[in-house]
Amino acid sequence: MEKFFKLKERSTDIRTEVIAGATTFLAMAYILIINPAILGEAGMDRGAVFTATALSAAIATAVMALLANLPYALAPGMGLNAFFAYTVVLGMGYSWETALAAVFIEGVIFILLTIFNVREAIIRSIPPVLRNAISGGLGLFIAFIGLQNAGIITAGRHLVELGDITSIGPELLAVIGLVLTAALLVLKVRGALLIGIAATALLGIPMGVTAWHGGSFLPPSLSPTFCRFDFNGIFSFEFLIIVFTFLFVDMFDTAGTLIGCATEAGMVDEDGSIPNAKEALFADAVGTTVGAILGTSTVTTTAESSTGVIAGGRTGLTALTASALFLVSLFLSPLFLSIPAAAASPALVIVGFSMMGPVKRIDFSEPTEGLPAFLCMLMMLLSYSVSDGMMFGILSYVVMKAVSRKWESLSIPTVVLALIFLLKLFVE
Q1: Residue 247, class by beta-carbon neighbours within 10 Å (0-12 exposed, 13-18 middle, 19+ buried)?
Q2: Whole-structure pTM over 0.90, yes or no?
Q3: Whole-angstrom distance, CA of residue 406 vs CA of residue 427
Q4: Are 247 and 110 in contact, with CB atoms under 8 Å apart?
């Protein structure tokens, strides 16, 4: 353990690492509940998605532990699964098999980009303001989906309106769950999201909302989703935009997590680089590829990894512990699948809130920075599309920088992205 993970070198020990790994797992175990629920909306088998979620998280996190020796855990990303289900499948009309094909292609491209150090170069070249705006826009989008799934927000004569939150039912249960989960968060209870989901589900029993799913405690079969790719239409422009969106969002989701967690752990070198960053990005790419094969949306380094870092995790042993606990969770599927959407939805709202942090780094007093960021976030929410929000953000950024003659702010990759989105707009 000492030689492989270099525990003494990083001022830690086995007990601290194991506790940190368990803390990370508890903080992100809600993904086992929410991911099958979201992808189930796209028509995928919830049981198969549960198994794919747990297995892909275990495999990708183990790669992070053994290859990068970093304390970060990976799992299907919350914003990315929402884009998969609500934009690509339900919004654009693609089958979930086609969406899985896009995720698989994204993973393969990521592996190649990581090998040739392209991901690091792209990360450095994209305007920070748009990275921050994408995180904030995704947060609003995820929270809106959570409120919708719970019935708190419904369709109405003004497009959307407040649902019936006073009668005993899923809507009231979701409101109670949101208050409870927020209270746990304020009190800084470890695993607040998971505890909030569990407590809300229990409250749903006497309210007639929660019902036992039943079934075997053996892991659900992967056969409904395993290697179920549909590559028809992969050469269409719209499909390329989908792959690019998965690439873009995952790239900066992972980059932000790595930078934030490494800073918290004091693991950033003097030149600003992160130790074993290439290996960490490779674990992310492998996780996405394996996840698509198993039957889940894009796997990414999770922000919940910061809970383990705060608990003292400094090496891959933290990640390896979390990986082992994901494997154990495979045998608890009836428990996880019995959780109703009303109990899981408050966690989506809280996750959305947690993604708003980068917004405070946006300078809204500078129109060429603040307006593109604002449009990016606003249009993600109102268009019900991550890619459309990105399109408005990037196009407005390039236009405003050009009008103000701030040419130094425009990198070649940013201009290329703007041209791609402009072409997409006219093609559609």
Answers
A1: buried
A2: no
A3: 29
A4: yes
